[in-house]
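Appendix B, record 7
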Amino acid sequence: TTSAFSATQVASLKVNKPAGMANGDVIVAGVVARGASQATITADTGWVQVRTDTPGTSQVSEVWRKVITDAAGEPVTYTWSFSVNSQAAIGISAYKDVDNTTPVDVSGGQENASSASVVAPAIVTTVANTMLFGHFSIQGASLTFTHPTGMTERHDVTQSAGTDKCSGSGGDEAFVGPGSTGTRTATASAAGVNAG
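Structure tokens (predicted):
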């Protein structure tokens, strides 16, 4: 299941937890924030930052993960805070049957010049039967994404108000591996500085 929210010029943003979570699930969040300058992003206790990419001079694109150990005790919402008031768009997806000790095998990302093509680099998995999670973000309002062939879109969220508009999308794909995934390219509905 997936939950997604956006807000304009905020110091923090709350996102509802995905429905139906159980102990042992792993939830993954794609976070994009854009302000007058690049914000430092922090999350609630229990969340672990997987990676950060900083396309342009005002946007931050991050992936976070959390292992669910007490589903009944999870809060109704999760909060991300920004050191600079920012437009923000966040989506959370929940996954079952994930290795709770090492939920992320490897990660990768890249910042791209202005384009409608949002390219994520190849990564090399070290174990078989992994789930690729792609987080694609772009500067711009009301933009939608078409995910790469073979990848299922889980959220598509945009912040179109204010001056520092941004959009983000998350998707996943089963990957047999181990080995190189090859690149993945999402296509945005308009060009902008972006990260995949």
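Remarks on this record: The chain has no helices and 14 strands. The CA atoms of residues 156 and 169 lie 4 Å apart.
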